[in-house]
Structure formats: structure tokens, C-alpha cells
Design goal:
The structure holds 2 protein chains of 2 kinds. By secondary structure, chain A is an all-alpha fold. Helices cover 82% and strands 0% of the residues of chain A. By secondary structure, chain B is mainly alpha-helical. Chain B folds into 2 domains: 2-157, no CATH class; 178-224, no CATH class. The N and C termini of chain B lie far apart (38 Å). The chains are: A mainly alpha, B mainly alpha.
Amino acid sequence: MNEINYLLAAMLVMTVATYITRLTPFLLFSKGQESSLFNYISKSTPPMVMTILVIYMLKDVEYLTFEIVYTFIALLVTTGLHIYKRNALLSIVSGTIVYMIFVQT
Amino acid sequence: MIRSALTISLPILFGFVPLGIAFGLLFQELGYPWYFASLMAVFVYAGAAQFMAIGLLSSGIGLLEIAISTFFLNSRHMFYGLAFLQSFGNWNLRKLYLIFGLTDETYALMTTIKVPKNFTKERYYFFITLFAQLYWVLGCTIGALAANALSFNTSGMEFAATALFVVLLIEQWVKVKRLLPFVIAFIASAIALLFFIKHMLLVAIILSIASIVLFRLFKIQPNE
């Protein structure tokens, strides 16, 4: 297999594998059959996933280094601004700029 | 509707473009023409899996291994669809695309926002999903094209993704106002980090869902 064919085949395989993971729940559960337990699960999942994603993003921060300090400051900026202004864009951009300043200096 | 969807999807722009640029830059080290980075973003459209693929491709690993690792890396997405069984509408091309575009970021955004009353949910979601993928394709393409010519220092920009999830976490808190899911997810994450750090995301999600089901089945209702 030459290089380009290998890449194309890999992309095809990855596309299918990814799509299967996203499609599965729609094939397993039809619209009519939801129980109250099922609704409860699908309502509780977003807050849980969000908590997990935040922890996942922060898991590689090295503790006992300066990194944890500026990561905390950037998080504080994002959180504080968001509670104060409720403007997602503003909170994200400000926190990121603060973080970038620390990383790059 | 398009303008509203564009505005509300902008936080994803700030997460996807820098991350896409990072992907494009790394991808170029494999030595393929730049447009393959764009094609990856169009067809595969999975951030973590694309990054993983760079490593796998450079080692020339077999297709079956690529398929299996992609599947397991993305298997957390199996839980994402649960939130949209109804709101993605009837089976048609749009629904197939909405499912295709269900990433961490679109899931997070679409489960958090309220669709304005005068808009059809599935159409609104469609534009959000479409814009999000455009940002990703844009980022990957810029990164691949600029691999040699990039003069802007993007290091630290990856924090935008963290900030996006933090913002959405706060919004979830405002929306849900029950402590239980957050506490369960926190404990599950800690356990997953301690014992299954390689598959932290998936393990934490499965543990969380299993625990919340147990709480429900045994009607444990902590004072909240």
C-alpha cells in the first residue's frame, strides 16, 4: 500500500468508527420507549459530562509548579467574569488571554 | 436563525480554531499534502482521535488497530446521543449530519443553551453543528498551511477549550440546580484518574451514569 492510500484507508476507518460511536444511541433507543428512568439519565448526563470534561482538561496540570498558579488565575478570571457578566465569549476570551500571557512570558 | 446560531456557536470557534491549528501543525510533520489535514477535519471530525491518528500513522500501524483505538477513544460519544433522541427530529439527512457532528463541544453547548422559541430545534442545532465543524476545518487547514510560516505565537490558546467547558459547567449549574450529578461526576472522575487514567473520560462517564441510576433505583434522595 502506498503512503496516500494508507492515509485514505485510515481516514475511512476512523470516519466509520467515530460515526458508529455517535450513532449507537439513536439506533438502540427509539423515541417512544423512554421511561422516567431514561429521562432522568439523559437529564443528569450533561452536568456530569461537563464536570468530567473540566477535570479531564485540567488533569495534566503539573502541581507544585507555577503552572498550577496561572491556570488557577485564568480559571478564576473565566469563572468570575462569567458569574458577573454571563457572557460566554467574554469569559472564554479573557481567561484564555490571561493564560496565554502567562505561558508566553 | 442563522445569525443567532452563529453568535451562540462563537465560543466553539475559540476552542476549535486554536486546537485545529495545533492539529494542522503536527499533522504536517507526517509529510502529507496540507489538504489531507482539511479532509480529516471534514470526514473524521473528532479532535482527540485526530491527534491520536498522527501518532498511529507515523508508526504505520494496521487499519484494524486504528479502527479499534478510534472506537474506544470516542466511545464516550455513545452517551451523548441520549440527550438528543427527540430533539434531532425525524430520520433524514439532517439528522444523520447532526449525529455525525456530535462532538464534546457541540454536545456541551447544545445541552446547555435554550433554543429561542420561534426557531425549530433541529434546524437551530443544524446550524450550530455546521458552524462548529467549519471552525474545526478552518483551524486544521490554517495549521497545515501555516506549518512553516506561522508567525503568531499560539501557545496557551488551548486553554480556550478548558474555559469553554468551565463556562458551560456554570451554565449547567444554573440550569440544573441539583448538587447530586456534579458530586457524583467529581467522585467518579477522581476514581477514574486514580485507577484508569488512560481511559479517564470513558470510565468516569460510565461510573457516573451507573451511580446516578443506582441513586434513582434505590430512591436515595439526599437533601439538596
